[in-house]
Design brief:
Elements lengths: L1 E6 L7 H13 L3 E5 H4 L4 H4 L6 E2 L2 H7 L3 E6 L1 H11 L6 E5 L9 E2 L3 H10 L2 E6 L2 E5 L9 E2 L2 E5 L7 E7 L2 E8 L1 E5 L7 H4 L11 E7 L9 E4 L4 E6 L4 E6 L2 E6 L4 E5 L4 E6 L4 H9 L8
Parallel strand pairs: 1-2, 1-4, 2-3, 4-5, 5-6
Antiparallel strand pairs: 7-20, 8-9, 8-19, 10-13, 10-17, 11-12, 11-16, 13-14, 14-15, 16-19, 17-18
Length: 293
């Protein structure tokens, strides 16, 4: 078995858990490579126990064909891992060394259990839909995809913008707002939720359109089929606006043509047997808990 370890920061408080993970992998004779940027942050006591060979690109994943990628961080780290995994079909297991951990569902103290279940195949994979951006300019290079959401928002001033929105070429609405979010089911518990959007189960074949601080109070989030193609025209007092795919951003202008559709491929997330989406929202959002007493 071969795994890739991915992370953005080797924080001091997480080093004991990272060291324990290295020991677990070595004891079980699992071949593993660190992401190059993470490897360069490791202290000497861990470096002495790991290979100096590292990985750093989507091409490395295609060449080495790891069985899985262990994402060490929070949900944002998984979003970054997706930009390397792309269409390789390599599943991601999220180990939460961050905060909320909606996608990174394995707590640090459960690392030994996670390794055991991974070795013995005691897990299942969930297919997660991706959003894909199509534009008349090269905004995000080879990775115009998002696991969570796509947004359009105002940039440097306090004036709201107007986002004319079309579904399959038919006019839907003009949003006078600070911005607009198009969320996948996975992203429905993120930015969209904080702006009043609904929670979608991960296997729901839908997208959510959620306005950010809309001027018209009767404008509400809308759920649409994920086979729809959304296109946008943006207007404002300024010529430039912000466009994001998950945590990555680009500047767009009024003459840019933008469209969002369902990506042709999906991302696989590894879930251990005891974990379910309902248990996740119970624990992360405190659903079903009476905190009055």
């Amino acid at each position: 078995m071969k795994v890739f370890l991915f992370g953005q920061n080797a924080k001091e408080e997480n080093l004991p858990h990272l060291s324990g993970l290295v020991n677990q992998l070595r004891e079980n004779k699992i071949e593993f490579l660190f992401f190059k940027n993470l490897y360069q942050q490791l202290p000497q006591d861990i470096l002495s126990r790991v290979s100096s060979q590292t990985w750093e690109s989507h091409q490395d994943i295609l060449e080495h064909k790891p069985n899985s990628i262990l994402s060490l961080g929070g949900d944002g780290t998984i979003l970054q891992a997706v930009t390397y995994v792309r269409d390789s079909r390599v599943p991601i297991l999220g180990i939460n060394t961050g905060r909320l951990g909606f996608l990174a569902s394995i707590e640090k103290k459960l690392i030994p259990d996670a390794v055991y279940h991974l070795i013995h195949g005691n897990y299942y994979t969930e297919e997660r839909t991706l959003l894909q951006l199509e534009s008349d300019s090269d905004l995000f290079g080879e990775i115009p995809i998002a696991l969570n959401d796509f947004t359009i928002s105002k940039r440097d001033n306090s004036s709201m913008i107007t986002i004319h929105t079309y579904i399959n070429g038919d006019f839907m609405n003009s949003y006078w707002a600070d911005g607009l979010i198009v969320s996948s089911p996975t992203g429905s518990t993120g930015y969209s939720l904080s702006c009043g959007g609904p929670i979608l189960f991960p296997d729901t074949a839908s997208f959510v359109i959620t306005p950010v601080a809309p001027h018209n109070l009767n404008v509400r989030p809308v759920v649409i089929p994920d086979h729809s193609i959304l296109s946008f025209e943006v207007e404002g007092r300024e010529d430039s606006f912000l466009c994001t795919l998950d945590s990555r951003k680009a500047v767009i202008h009024q003459n840019n043509q933008l469209a969002i559709r369902k990506c042709d491929y999906t991302i696989q997330l590894i879930q251990l047997q005891p974990v379910s989406f309902l248990k996740t929202i119970h624990s992360k959002l405190n659903w079903g808990l009476d905190q009055r007493n």
